[in-house]
Design brief:
The complex is a heterodimer of chains A (about 110) and B (about 110).
Chain A (H helix, E strand, L loop, with lengths): L2 E3 L4 E5 L4 E3 L2 E3 L5 E7 L6 E7 L4 E4 L2 E6 L4 E6 L8 E9 L6 E4 L3 E6 L1
Parallel strand pairs in A: 2-12
Antiparallel strand pairs in A: 1-4, 3-9, 5-6, 5-10, 7-8, 8-9, 10-11, 10-12
Chain B lengths: L3 E4 L2 E4 L5 E7 L5 E8 L3 E8 L6 E2 L7 E4 L4 E6 L8 E8 L9 E2 L3 E5 L1
Parallel strand pairs in B: 2-11
Antiparallel strand pairs in B: 1-3, 3-8, 4-5, 4-9, 5-6, 7-8, 9-10, 9-11
The chains are: A mainly beta (about 110), B mainly beta (about 110).
């Protein structure tokens, strides 16, 4: 069935370090993939979207690239800041006769030390 | 900006208790969702709806009922609460007409079942 997998449960970096978070997916349809970010005490919010049409999404200094060959899409940022500390979720849209739904990975907690 | 409001924000009940979580969205979105968030599991879909009177079963529906009374209001019902339902619950909405797959989340309702 449709699924997304995040293996990195927690990542700890220092300011100005490079960030890389990987996510793999499985689907029988053309994938529409998202990265969501959740700051402490808040609900998740959209960070960026990647489709087979654009293969790449960019927002707020973050970039995500989709790789059909490895069925993965990873999130990266060249230089993280303490304010980037949050939980990051990858997500996949599942289109079906019962309506559309979004399934999420288990999340990666990013802690950035000043 | 989509507005999704959840109530109550915090709730403590006992095993076997009856709990209703409420969600209202004010942007005329047709889709509404209930998710639960647990460490190690990420966000898991309980129920969703694509309009008033409609209900679709999500991925973890056992022990939960839901009802969509109007375009704006979506309720999650726990009629015999159990400790395993202690969790952080999020409501979300989306506009299927735009077909972007973007969800707008509320701030969450923390439920503790003793």
């Amino acid at each position: 069935g449709d699924s997304v997998t995040q293996k990195q449960g927690q990542v700890t970096l220092s300011e100005d370090d490079f960030l890389f978070i990987n996510c793999t997916y499985s689907t029988t349809t053309y994938p529409t993939l998202f990265w969501y970010v959740q700051y402490p005490g808040q609900g998740p919010q959209l960070l960026l979207k990647v489709t087979t049409a654009n293969n790449k999404g960019i927002s707020r200094g973050f970039e995500a690239t989709y790789d059909k060959g490895t069925t993965s899409f990873h999130l990266q940022k060249a230089s993280v800041q303490e304010s980037d500390s949050a939980v990051y979720f990858c997500a996949l849209v599942v289109y079906g006769g019962s309506g559309n739904k979004l399934i999420f990975g288990t999340g990666t907690l990013l802690s950035v030390k000043p | 900006e989509a507005a999704v409001t959840q109530s109550p924000r915090n709730k403590v009940t006992v095993t076997g208790g009856n709990v209703t979580l409420s969600c209202r969205q004010t942007n005329s979105h047709n889709y509404m969702y209930w998710y639960r968030q647990d460490t190690g599991h990420g966000l898991r879909l309980i129920h969703y709806s694509y309009g008033a009177g409609n209900l679709q079963i999500g991925d973890v529906p056992d022990g939960y009922k839901a009802t969509r009374t109007t375009q704006e209001d979506f309720f999650l019902l726990l009629e015999l609460a159990s400790p395993s339902q202690t969790s952080l619950y999020f409501c979300a909405s989306s506009d299927a007409n735009k077909n972007t797959g973007q969800l707008y989340f509320g701030e969450g309702s923390k439920l503790t079942v003793l």
